[in-house]
């Protein structure tokens, strides 16, 4: 096996461990490294070759979470369409993160300052206490565009709408985990209610 093939295999194995950890920890925060190794289809010894301990694996999961949140923002194309269309795309992209949302909300619940920064406070980046992308210039620009094109209530500031977005996602995640509604129906209801929140009173 060439060095390039070995490197690709190592990358796939590492990613499989991270993906398995996200899936298991979303269901059970106490999942053991042995259980994660089994879910990833590797032995415990193999897992330790990639991650020396639980803390190292958690750090890798955090980095993966930040990457996926950033990728969701990119896929949402916040600079295209009306402001409301852009935010609805972002809502759907975040929703599609699935198990990762559970870990995001768990982290937020353990943070003293959960709300998004106010209009005179600095926005928090990927290394801060809020999810990556929260109150980014791109999101604020989409809100301003929506207020100009009439798709977003001008009385609703970006930091407020960002908090409303995550509140809707939390509700969607909670309902999805209960299993009472099909996932597509949860997404439909989430987008419909978020769209109404963006428009404000009629």
Description:
The chain is mainly alpha-helical and 202 residues long. It has two domains: 1-52, Arc Repressor Mutant, subunit A (Orthogonal Bundle); 65-199, Orthogonal Bundle (Tetracycline Repressor, domain 2). Helices cover 68% and strands 0% of the residues. It is built from nine helices and no strands. The longest helix has 25 residues, at 3-27. The chain is elongated and about 60 Å long. The model is unreliable at 111-134 (pLDDT under 50). It comes from Polymorphospora lycopeni. Keywords: DNA-binding, Transcription, Transcription regulation. Residues 115-134 are annotated as: Disordered. Residues 11-69 form the HTH tetR-type domain. This is TetR/AcrR family transcriptional regulator.
Nearest-angstrom radius of gyration?
Answer: 19 Å
* Level-2 CATH architecture of the largest domain: Orthogonal Bundle
Q: How many structural units, i.e. domains?
A: 2
What CATH calls the topology of the largest domain is Tetracycline Repressor, domain 2
Low-confidence stretches: 111-134
The proportion of strand residues reads: under 5%
Q: Can you write the helix and strand succession as a string? A: HHHHHHHHH
CATH class of the largest domain: Mainly Alpha
| Helix-strand category | mainly alpha
Compute the number of strand runs. 0
Q: What level of helicity do the residues show?
A: 55-70%
Q: Count the DSSP helices.
A: 9
Assembly classification: single chain
Keywords: DNA-binding, Transcription, Transcription regulation
Protein name: TetR/AcrR family transcriptional regulator
Organism: Polymorphospora lycopeni
InterPro entries: Homeodomain-like_sf (IPR009057), HTH-type_TetR-like_transc_reg (IPR050109), HTH_TetR (IPR001647)
């Amino acid at each position: 096996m060439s060095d390039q093939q070995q490197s690709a295999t190592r990358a796939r194995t590492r990613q499989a461990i991270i993906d398995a950890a996200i899936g298991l920890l979303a269901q059970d925060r106490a999942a053991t490294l042995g259980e994660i190794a089994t879910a990833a289809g590797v032995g415990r010894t193999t897992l330790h070759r990639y991650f020396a301990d639980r803390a190292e694996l958690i750090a890798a999961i955090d980095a993966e979470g930040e990457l996926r949140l950033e990728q969701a923002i990119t896929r949402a194309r916040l600079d295209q369409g009306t402001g409301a269309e852009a935010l609805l795309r972002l809502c759907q992209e975040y929703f599609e993160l699935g198990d990762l949302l559970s870990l995001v909300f768990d982290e937020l619940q353990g943070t003293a300052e959960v709300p998004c920064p106010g209009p005179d406070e600095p926005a928090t980046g990927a290394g801060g206490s809020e999810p990556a992308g929260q109150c980014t210039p791109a999101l604020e620009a989409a809100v301003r565009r929506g207020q100009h094109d009439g798709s977003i209530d001008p009385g609703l500031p970006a930091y407020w709408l960002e908090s409303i977005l995550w509140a809707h996602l939390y509700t969607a995640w909670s309902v999805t985990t209960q299993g009472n509604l099909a996932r597509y129906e949860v997404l439909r209801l989430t987008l419909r209610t978020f769209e109404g929140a963006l428009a404000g009173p009629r």
